[in-house]
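[job 0412] stage=complex_fold ligand=CA2 status=START
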Amino acid sequence: MGETAVLSILVLHGPNLNLLGKREPGVYGTTTLDDINAMLVQQAQELQVQITALQSNHEGALIDAIHAALGQHHGLVINPGAYTHTSVAIRDAIAAVELPTVEVHLSNVYRREAFRHHSYIAPVAIGQISGFGANSYRLGLQALVEHLRQS
Ligand code: CA2
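[job 0412] stage=complex_fold status=DONE, emitting structure tokens
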């Protein structure tokens, strides 16, 4: 990755997000993960960046993907799902690779149960976007690309 390399962003979706649009539409809406990824691919074309998207229900697989991003991607957009509130290991992986990271959530976690109010990820992220549904990812990708282009 030289100075002029096209920016490459890894988008990670955590546990249960594969069910989006298929279960509990009253809570998480009818947009599927494929819909979100398609929206991000379109946005990436407009921003002239590359994106790779990956979903896993497994903490270790997410950590492996974060490690593998080093030298391959310039930044990370992650919805860690429930691991947001439990995973010191994902936080340590993000801190270790030192890739600029934006944490995103579909729901406004601060309007929900108290156990969702704490994020292990937020202190190692450049910022967090929560509560805008699928648009949280769009806003997160835009913010990350602007951050990378400023630095
Ligand atoms: O709001 C978010 O994006 C969350 O990261 C979603 C997680 C939740 O544990 C976090 O507190 C906030 C849960 C994702 C579950 O996704 C489902 C989708 C459809 C049906 C059931 C679960």
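Residues 10-150 form a domain with the Rossmann fold fold (CATH 3.40.50.9100).
[job 0412] exit 0
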